[in-house]
Amino acid sequence: MLILTCPNCGITAEETEFHAGGEAHLTRFGPGASDADFEQYLFMRDNPKGVHFERWRHVYGCGKWFHAARDTVTLEIFGTYTAQTGTPPQDILDTIKDRRPDWQGSGTS
Amino acid sequence: MKKYSAFAIAREALRHHTGWQRAWRDAQPKKRYDVIIIGAGGHGLATAYYLGKNFGITNVAILEKGWLGGGNTGRNTTIIRSNYLQDPSAAIYEKSRSLYETMSQDLNYNVMFSPRGVIMLAQTQHEVRGYQRTAHANALQGVQTEFIGPERVKELVPIINIDGPRYPVLGGLYQARGGTARHDAVAWGYARACSDMGMDVIQKCEVTGIRREGGKVTGVSTNRGDIDCDKLGMVVAGHSGHLADMAGFRLPIESVALQALVSEPIKPCMDVVVMANTVHGYMSQSDKGEMVIGGGTDGYNNYTQRGSFHHIEETVRALIETFPMVSRLKMLRQWGGIVDVTGDRSPILSKTPVEGVFINCGWGTGGFKAIPGSGWAMAELMAKGQSPLTDAFGLNRFQEGRFIDESVAAGVAH
Predict the structure, then answer these.
(1) In this complex, which of B252, B255, B309 lies closest to A43 when CB atoms are compared?
(2) Cα B280 from Cα B180, distance rounded (Å)
(3) What pTM did the predictor assign?
(4) Which among A8, A44, B15, B75 is placed 20 to 30 Å from B322, CA to CA?
């Protein structure tokens, strides 16, 4: 059972109050994009075994979207942050590097 | 390998069962193989078996990081059916179902295939129309299914409540030749047959890297040293993305946890498999008498082989309305497996951007039923570079928009 904190309304609750929305920080390509770009955006996923940046929605609360950094092996949540960003904030990255010194990722693919 | 038979049982009974041999050799890795298959689950072992049986390729190693059949092969709810909507799906699943019918004889290993029939309940008008459409499609595909009314459902499943207040049973898609099989025996039977053909089934051998030269695979690195190969098959379900990352490409796959549970054993009460897809639950009774129950997947990426308690609760809550007697049962065990789910809920059997590397994954929540057909098709793909059963399931379909959309047609709960 995951315990998440919604950064929009500040409420901490267990996962039944939220709904998972898949990988975060996907780049949506605009007009003129190639088929390969669109394939990347629509279907291709990092699906990492380890640190994962993902979207969540506080469905039975404020209803707003936010992002979370979570480990898919231990289910540890490193933190939640606003959805209005293209990259994870520095404090989240610092927490991850503190907890997972070997982690090589950047949060964007 | 000594043949299993009634005579062998009688002979061993007379000498206190001292003559049974190992079912498969405990092999050590060699320096080089023609083909390496990563993953000794049902699909990987079936691929190796048909490489040997249909194409005479027996210099094969099957590498397994854990133990044989210890992943999703040993964690599913053992349902076998082929009532899919789309033609490519019907072709490969029906091939698979028909191979299950003769598997015990082919492998000389009792996989306890029980064609007891599978009913997918229609509990909304939408499902009624959807399953009638599937029944018509199946008729054209040569897959024997029929749409049956609620009275016939009640006749086949006396313990069902067909006029529940929220989800009345309005009918069902019935495949009389579907059923169940003993999942562990499928893996063990294939392993025994592969070992007998001279293949090496190597357990506790984890692949840590995929070695390439000029865009072509040359071998794998493992915790037991480097092994060379000409061709490499990745057949690892939930960890496909992890392996693809080692080989330098991405997959349209997300790995999530799928849970199942069994009740205490009770007397025989239901001799068909029932799937209730609107409420996300399915149930059958094992030969031991346990009610085997499965539900939907958890919503988020997960590699832990366990899921959230509330999903179990939802599944059981839904089943209690349709099967009131379930409320009196105690549940014995609950477990989870990591399933690899694609965007269109159909599998991937394909060449990859790395020459010599083939991938068989994306079976998501419904891989057990496909084991023999998947192995048959994957072996043909690896041996000949092409197979009529896998043509539609290539990786390129996501770029070309040629989806095999079963996510709605199959009612999600595979």
Answers:
(1) B252
(2) 19
(3) 0.94
(4) B75
